[in-house]
Amino acid sequence: MAATLSVSLAAAEFDLDLVELGEISPRPGTVISSDNFERFSYLFDPDFGKFIQGGFVHITVGQPVSFNPHPAFVFATKQYRGQPALTDNPGLLTNFVQGKPFPGRHDIKDPKAGTKVAWNMRYAYTGDNGKIPEMHWQLRDWRKEDPQFEMFTTARTMRFMYRHVREPIPYVKKNPQDAYGAFLLNVIDAGTYDGAQALVFANRDESRDINGWVWIPQLSRTQSLASFAREESMFGSDILPTDFLVFATRMVDMDWEYRGSTYMLLPFYRHDRVETANRKARKYDYWHADLHGRSGCFPKVNWQLREVLILEARTKDQSAPAARRILYIDKQTSVLSFWKIYKENEALWKFAISGYAHPNSHVMENNESGAPILTVYSTIDAQTNRCTTMQLLTVVNVNDVTTDDFDTSNIRSGGGRSFRRR
What we know:
By secondary structure, the protein is mainly beta. The protein has one domain. It has six helices and 20 strands. Strands 5, 6, 7, 8, 9, 10, 11, 12, 15, 16, 17, 18, 19 and 20 form a 14-stranded mixed β-sheet that branches. A two-stranded antiparallel sheet has the order 1-2.
C-alpha cells in the first residue's frame, strides 16, 4: 500500500490536468490584443499586461500541452523523496542525489517554502548536457524598427552532478571544481568582442565565490569572473549576467519568499505549430522561433495556460543595482519562463522572457528527451526603452559534449598568457 501511494505521489507531482486547463484557458488560436485585453488581463503579470493594453504586442493562445519530465527524473523524484534537506549552510543541500529536491505542494506560511521552490528551480531537468550551435543576438532600440546590432555566439553545457539519462549517472567522478554544472560561451561574430570566451562553473556549494574565467583576445589575457561586476550588462546588451537565459545568481545572495500560485499564460509551445522566422539553422532541419511586437522585442510563439509558482527574490547586497526580482516558475517543470527585475529604489527595471518548445515538436535529436527546449529569449529594459533578443537552437543529451570541453587547462591565468584555441 505504501509503495502504491509513493508511485501515485510521484506521478501526480508532474501530472497536468489538460481537461481542466482546457476548460479555463481561452480558446486556442485566440489573439489577445488591446481590443480584448480586459477580458483576459487576469492571465498576465499586470506590468507585462501594459504592453498588450498599449498595443505594443499581441499574444496568441496555444493549446495546453503537458511537458512531462523524463521518466528517469520522475523515478528519481520518487526514489529520493523526503531525503534532500536544507542545511545551516544556505548554499548547500544535504542528501540530494537526483530528481526534484522538494516535491509536493508548498505552504505560503512556511518560511522555508521560498528557498525550497528556488532549489527546485535550480535543479529543474533541462538535460544532462547540451549544446547551442546557434545563438543569434539582436540589440534593439524600442523607438526603431530594425535591430541596431547583431551578434552570433555558441555555447555548451554539462551537469557534473544530479544526472539522470546519460552515463555516468548520477555524477561525473572527475570533477575537480566540485561543480554542479558548467557553461561555455564562445563569441563568434560580435564586433569588438570577437573571439571572447567565458567558462562558468555552477558551484555545488553556492556559498563559495563565483567560479569561472573569461578570455579576452583583444588583451591576450584571461580574467576571473570574480573580477567583473556581476550586474554589468553582457557585451553592451541589456542582459545582466545573473539573468542570462535563466536566473543564475547564487542561492546565498538572495532572500527567497514564496508568494503562492496562480494560472498564467506563458510562452510554452509546440514549435511545429507556430509560424517561424525566415532564419534557418545552418546544419539542422530547423527554422528559428520568430520575434514580433514593438521593435521585435517579444517572442512570436503561442502562449499556453500554465500553473505557476510566484517567487520573490531580494538581494542581500544593499549596493546591488538589481534589488529585487519577481519570478514566475512553471509548476510542472520548475523552469523559469518570465520574471521582472527591480532597482534598489523599487523602480521596475527589466523584463526577462524565455520561450520553451516541447521537445517532441523540435529537432529530432530532442525527441522524448523530457526537457523543455529553450528557443527564444528577450530582455526588455523598461527604463532605457531598449531590448535584447535571442534566437537559439538548443539540443540536449548529445554525444559530442564531454567533460573535456570544460577543462580549465584551456584557460591559463596570468598576465599575457593566451587561451589555447581548439
